[in-house]
Design brief:
Elements: E1 2-7, H1 10-19, E2 27-32, E3 42-43, H2 51-60, E4 65-68, H3 71-76, H4 78-84, E5 89-90, H5 94-101, H6 103-112, E6 120-123, H7 126-133, E7 140-144, E8 153-156, H8 159-171, E9 182-186, E10 191-200, E11 204-212, E12 215-217, E13 221-224, E14 229-232, H9 239-259, E15 265-275, E16 278-285, H10 293-296, H11 304-313, E17 327-335, E18 360-364, E19 367-370, E20 373-376, E21 380-388, H12 391-402, E22 410-411
Parallel strand pairs: 1-2, 1-4, 2-3, 4-5
Antiparallel strand pairs: 6-9, 7-8, 7-9, 10-11, 10-15, 11-14, 12-13, 14-17, 15-16, 17-21, 17-22, 18-21, 19-20
Length: about 425
């Protein structure tokens, strides 16, 4: 098979690495890719939002399967463009990707189908939002309706903070058109857990659990980011919680989308909060998470190409999805100043230290190959991932591997997976 992967981050590197393990695959392309993905794929200079060019390339190269990694092209309708051209593509159509593309849509869907989530109100008028806040309980959560690179969520502890947040999202348009509408919802407390799943329109098969660390600084301080590190599995995601979620959240979401005429095929990422009242949905994503993918796929034993095809063909019920009985931790190496302002073009040293090291991986996020070698090319630069027999060992291995690599202004959190100490 020939496979095309669309995207350029750590998630797409992990997908390319996993696809390369399939004995069915002889050639991988990635558009646009990055310096790490080059190891497994021929990188093609086509942007993820250039749908017609991507489809033309897939036809020209006789691509058997295209995998869409990123949210923007999915919400923008890349799958519809590919299907119209008779091309096999993994990911939801635009009318299903709205599950991530509009938080107002997803909240209304959960309300209609009684899927547990936080109480909320939707607003498209900033004055109405401000008036509502006068009567609200704090802390409270403000969310830009559309895509915002994982950064469009503000947790506000006071009325003044919330008023400033409305201004940021709806008036100053810090997140662009994504802030034309806004969701205001109750603040939930508990453990956050991420559960990724494969969906074929009717059947859902969940992957192993993970937990992300969104804030830039140690101790969950600083600004929200795309994710500073993650671990898998979550020791807080018990068998009882899984059974509840399968019955009241996962399958009901798939059935709800089908009932709305929005058949979902691809990945549904469930962001959950384990509250005192039981698990509730924080958010949906319509694609693999980043950096959750970097800890989930190294633990996956099943051939991922088989699973992709089963989702497209509606035969997921026949797939046995298996994960290793181990653990994985990913620590993101960022450029100091992320997520606001940071330098690019800084040489990266030590990548060769990961060659032939079993259980240690370095997934490239923001990197670029130049004549001088591989340099930084983004805020999140690399995801250093390691496995171990349990979370403690995986965490020790990941932080050991962090020291194998260096670049000027290297920044990372020192407490990824610290929560596991509470249960060990």
């Amino acid at each position: 098979m020939k496979v095309l992967i669309v995207g350029s981050g750590g998630r797409e590197h992990a997908i390319a690495w996993k696809v390369a393990q399939s004995p069915r695959v002889e050639k991988i392309y990635c558009a646009p890719g990055n310096a790490g993905i080059e190891q497994y794929a021929e990188c093609v200079n086509i942007g993820a939002m250039e749908f017609e060019k991507l489809a033309a390339f897939a036809k020209e190269k006789e691509i058997d399967l295209t995998v869409i990694g990123m949210d923007d092209p999915l919400v923008g309708g890349v799958v519809d463009v590919f299907e119209k051209e008779g091309l096999r593509v993994f990911g939801p159509r635009a009318n299903a990707a709205i599950l991530e593309g509009s938080k107002a849509f997803s909240k209304d869907l959960m309300k209609k189908y009684h899927i547990p989530t936080a109480a909320y109100e939707n607003f498209d008028d900033p004055q109405a939002a401000l008036a509502y806040l006068e009567t609200a309980k704090f802390p409270i959560v403000l969310k830009a309706d559309g895509l915002a690179l994982g950064k469009g969520v503000l947790i506000c502890n006071t009325l003044e903070e919330a008023q400033a947040g409305v201004k940021t999202i709806m008036l100053d348009k810090q997140f662009g058109a994504s802030g034309n509408r806004m969701v205001i919802e109750e603040f939930m407390t508990g453990r956050e857990v991420s559960v990724l799943s494969f969906v074929d329109g009717k059947t859902i098969k969940t992957m192993t659990s993970a937990q992300d660390h969104k804030r830039a600084g140690d101790g969950d301080t600083g600004l929200n980011t795309g994710g500073m590190g993650t671990f898998s599995p979550s020791p807080f995601y018990t068998k009882e919680i899984d059974e509840f979620c399968q019955k009241y959240i996962y399958q009901p979401t798939v059935d709800a989308m089908a009932a709305e005429g929005r058949e979902f095929k691809g990945i549904i990422f469930f962001g959950l909060m384990l509250t005192a009242d039981g698990p509730k949905v924080l958010e949906y994503n319509a694609r693999f998470g980043d950096p959750e993918t970097q800890v989930v796929l190294p633990r996956m034993k099943t051939d991922i190409v088989d699973v992709f095809e089963a989702c497209i063909d509606g035969t997921l019920d026949k797939v046995n999805l298996e994960f290793a009985d181990n653990a994985a931790v990913c620590v993101v190496l960022a450029s100091d100043g992320y997520p606001v302002k940071y330098e690019k073009g800084l040489p990266i040293r030590g990548l060769e230290n990961f060659a032939d090291k079993d259980g240690y991986y370095v997934f490239h996020a923001g990197t670029k190959r130049t004549e001088a070698g591989i340099v930084t090319n983004g805020g999140r630069v690399l995801g250093v991932t390691a496995t171990g027999k349990d979370l403690k060992e995986a965490r020790a291995n990941a932080y050991e591997a962090v020291n194998w690599i260096d670049f000027d202004n290297k920044y990372y959190r020192h407490d990824i997976g610290k929560a596991i100490d509470e249960v060990s």
